[in-house]
Amino acid sequence: MKHWSHINTLLRIAIGIIFVWASYGKILDPESFGDIIRNYRILPEILINPVSVILPWVEALAGILLISGFLVTGASMVINLMMFTFISVFLINIYRGIDVSCGCFSLSIETTKSMYRYLIRDFIIFLASIWVFIYKLRTDKYILSDNYPILKFGTMPEGGKRKDQ
After folding, report:
1. How many C-beta neighbours within 10 Å does residue 149 have?
2. What is the sign of the dihedral through the CA atoms of 106, 112, 118 and 119?
3. What span, in angstroms and rounded, lies between the C-alpha atoms of 93 and 112?
4. Which of 46, 86, 89, 114 has the fewest CB neighbours in a 10 Å radius?
5. How far is CA 78 from CA 23, 27, 57, 113, 150, in A?
6. Mean pLDDT, 10 residues at a time, over the chain (165 residues)?
7. For position 57, what pLDDT does the model report?
8. Residues sharing a CB contact under 8 Å with residue 96, sequence separation 6 or more, in sequence order
9. Helix, strand or coil for residue 49?
């Protein structure tokens, strides 16, 4: 079982590095990041500037938390929500026939890769982040302790009824 712990640590740190790296340029140049967000044609104009300023800091904080191993459950949940959103936005634009620059690691508006490559890359990161989240839940002694029997699937406390019944 020890090897699963090593795999989880590698995935957690790798995802953290990816998100810190991805946030760096966006933090330095939120205006260019705003142009990339605008090209997706999803958000109303009034939300583009706040999102272009706040999102990179959320990415950086979540990445730093994953790297440090502090608040891993929350950080991986935030990253999972972001990855789900990013994948959904890609799928919407693929459906609409709009080819846009990802904006993940570059602030260039020019498209350099296929949207499908971005989608596959994001899906792999999403799966890795789901792994980190589930692994943390399964190994966290406070969440899956005997004090919370409802979280143990297929088991019931003695007598077959929950304590609150």
Report:
1. 14
2. positive
3. 16
4. 46
5. 14, 18, 12, 26, 24
6. 80 93 90 86 90 94 93 92 91 82 63 74 92 85 50 50 48
7. 96
8. 41
9. helix
